[in-house]
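Researcher: Please translate sequence to structure tokens.
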Amino acid sequence: MQIKVLGTGCANCKTTFKLIEDVAKEKDVAVEMEKVEDLPSIMGYGVMSTPGVVVDGKVVHAGGIPSRVAVEGWLGGVAAAATAAGGCCSGGKCC
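Model: Translation complete:
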């Protein structure tokens, strides 16, 4: 799962990045995190209010720090899809 946090480096952008990292670690979801601070690149996603969050190429949030519940939902979809596809490893942890 690739997640990009769009923003020019403000405190809200940094908080958003850390929140996503922390939730991913807690849920044991592998994510590839990237900060996008270049304004033309941010605008290329159509995001006019930061921080923005892009999950696997799709803008899922713009403006303000997302709620923890929202982040869990973005990451939970991965675990739920793996479980539905029979992708759970022996040992009880989802891949």
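Researcher: Any highlights?
Model: The first helix runs from residue 11 to 27.
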